[in-house]
Design brief:
two-stranded antiparallel sheet, 3 helices, 4 strands
Length: 154
């Protein structure tokens, strides 16, 4: 029997890889770091609003997920889920957007596709964290020993 990753580990791995790729591809579409009234937005894949700050945030959150997936998947799923939901809500509320471009705190541009993306993946993170049992204090999970064909069954 092999060890299968739990929902939180799977979420941290998949969403971590996705956000890392989004951050890297985003730099191909727009890497300006303008803020305030000069906030500019580039279009990634014709759907998402992006700029350099958005790309850095995606890279940081994605690489953190990849790093924490093996041992801290549940904590990552919970924190990333909460952060992405907050980001989506702030985007829908256009919390601090500039006069020209809707955005968050006049730093990160946003649009409805971004906001929906953040809300969906945030909700999935919270679900993955809730579906993964907490480790018992002081106990570490041990892998199940593998039985080979040459070993007799006792």
């Amino acid at each position: 029997m092999t060890h299968r990753p739990g929902p939180a580990t799977l979420y941290a791995s998949v969403v971590g890889a996705l956000l890392t790729m989004i951050g890297l591809v985003g730099f191909l579409h727009g890497s300006n770091f303008a803020t305030g009234d000069s906030l500019r937005s580039e279009s990634m894949l014709g759907i998402f609003a992006t700029n350099g700050w958005w790309n850095l945030a995606s890279l940081a959150l994605g690489m953190t997920g990849l790093l924490l997936a093996p041992r801290g998947g549940r904590a990552y799923s919970l924190l990333a889920g909460a952060l992405l939901i907050a980001w989506g809500v702030a985007g829908f509320a256009e919390l601090g957007g500039s006069a020209n471009i809707p955005g968050i705190l006049q730093i990160v541009p946003t649009n409805s596709a971004d906001d929906i993306f953040h809300l969906v993946f945030g909700l999935l993170g919270l679900i993955a964290a809730a579906a993964t049992p907490r480790p018992l204090p002081g106990r570490r999970a041990r892998p199940v020993p593998q039985r080979t064909r040459s070993q007799p069954i006792n």
